[in-house]
């Protein structure tokens, strides 16, 4: 399955890539919200793992753009502690689920498997 | 809340927070991680800066983030360059070179994020209120220049922390500087 990771932190992208590739997924990477929106339109991934705080365009705005163009998009927000208000905004924008950093591996894979079906 | 009260709360949170940080790093990295403290004291920044200058003569990496909530504080995680190199190498599963590249800096920032968040989670449980950490920023600096940024008379909480990961033991100083204005 094709998964898009949108996160400005290089280490987080590397860690998620390793985890997802080990689980048999194909991974795409975006380093900000703008890239994520463009890549979603080009590649149509099955699931997007979207960080909230990113430069250029934040994850909530990117989620809004993606879900406006594809209401069936499956976007899972990756949030830090204290971003509850942002999670609510993201869900209103169309996000399907969220995981909180530092995340547990099983929680991330569980959310992907749930929404990929 | 006054600065000395904030420091007292932080001091009490230190053991459970570092336990949580170790657990979170273990879950996150899949490695055998443990974080413990050997000493927690409230000291003047002038004392802290003297210690830093004596103990870290090489460049150091400082991860900075702010805690914003019922009370505010700056959090600094200070590693010698050699300790940063060992910790990042363990996280990446391969030897890394100094100075750390973008990936290494990002890994160190994530450690700062995990440790800071662990403290804030303890506070959230204690006070039933939400704290928000700012995005961690990693600085390659020297003890000399780091110590010049803070007034010598400021009271800070100094935690000597030990990160144990696989076969590595990496020491770090965690410094908490309460701020009344955020």
Task: Describe the protein's topology.
The complex is a heterodimer of chains A (117) and B (182).
Chain A: E1 2-6, H1 10-22, E2 26-30, H2 33-43, E3 47-51, H3 59-69, E4 75-79, H4 84-93, E5 97-100, H5 105-116
Parallel strand pairs in A: 1-2, 1-3, 3-4, 4-5
Helix pairs in contact in A: 2-3, 3-4
Chain B: H1 3-29, E1 33-44, H2 45-55, E2 60-68, E3 72-80, H3 81-92, H4 102-127, E4 132-133, E5 137-141, H5 143-148, E6 155-165, E7 168-179
Antiparallel strand pairs in B: 1-6, 2-3, 2-4, 2-5, 3-7, 6-7
Structure report:
The complex is a heterodimer of chains A (117) and B (182). Chain A has 117 residues and is of the alpha/beta class. Chain A has one domain: 3-Layer(aba) Sandwich (Rossmann fold), CATH 3.40.50.2300. Helix content of chain A is 49%, strand content 21%. Chain A has five helices and five strands; from the N terminus they run βαβαβαβαβα. Chain A has helices at 10-22, 33-43, 59-69, 84-93, 105-116; strands spanning 2-6, 26-30, 47-51, 75-79, 97-100. Chain A has a five-stranded parallel β-sheet with strand order 2-1-3-4-5, sandwiched between helices. In chain A, α2 (33-43) packs parallel to α3 (59-69) and α3 packs parallel to α4. The longest helix of chain A is centred in the N-terminal third of the chain and has 13 residues, at 10-22. Chain B contains five helices and seven strands; from the N terminus they run αβαββααββαββ. Chain B has a single domain (3-166, 173-177), classed as CheC-like (Chemotaxis protein chec), CATH 3.40.1550.10. The model of chain B has no long low-confidence stretch (mean pLDDT 86). In chain B, α1 crosses α4 and α3 (81-92) crosses α4 (102-127). Helix content of chain B is 45%, strand content 33%. Chain B has 182 residues and is an alpha+beta fold. Chain A binds chain B through residues 9-12, 14-15, 53, 80-84, 101-105, and chain B through 24-25, 27-30, 68-69, 91-92, 102-103, 106-107, 109-110, 113-114, 117, 120-121, 124, 130-133, 135.
């Amino acid at each position: 399955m094709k998964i898009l990771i949108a996160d400005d932190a290089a280490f987080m992208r590397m860690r998620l890539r390793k985890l997802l590739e080990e689980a048999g997924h194909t991974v795409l990477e975006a380093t900000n919200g703008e890239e994520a929106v463009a890549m979603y339109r080009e590649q149509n991934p099955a699931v997007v793992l979207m960080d909230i705080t990113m430069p250029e365009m934040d994850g909530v705005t990117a989620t809004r753009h993606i879900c406006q163009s594809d209401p069936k998009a499956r976007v899972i927000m990756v949030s830090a502690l204290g971003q509850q208000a942002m999670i609510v905004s993201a869900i209103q924008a169309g996000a399907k689920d969220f995981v909180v950093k530092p995340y547990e591996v099983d929680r991330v894979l569980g959310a992907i498997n749930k929404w990929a079906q | 809340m006054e600065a000395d009260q904030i420091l007292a709360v932080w001091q009490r949170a230190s053991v459970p927070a570092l336990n949580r940080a170790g657990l979170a790093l273990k879950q996150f990295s899949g490695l055998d991680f443990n974080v413990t403290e050997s000493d927690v004291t409230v000291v003047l920044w002038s004392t802290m800066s003297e210690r830093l200058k004596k103990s870290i003569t090489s460049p150091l990496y400082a991860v900075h983030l702010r805690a914003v909530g019922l009370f505010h504080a700056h959090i600094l995680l200070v590693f010698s360059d050699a300790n940063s190199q060992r910790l990042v190498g363990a996280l990446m599963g391969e030897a890394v070179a100094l100075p750390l590249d973008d990936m290494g800096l990002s890994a160190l920032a994530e450690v700062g994020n995990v440790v800071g968040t662990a403290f804030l989670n303890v506070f959230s449980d204690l006070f039933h209120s939400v704290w928000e950490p700012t995005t961690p920023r990693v600085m390659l600096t020297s003890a000399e220049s780091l110590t010049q940024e803070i007034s010598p008379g400021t009271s800070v909480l100094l935690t000597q922390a030990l990160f144990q990961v696989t076969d590595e033991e990496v020491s770090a100083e965690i410094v908490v500087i309460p701020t009344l204005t955020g």
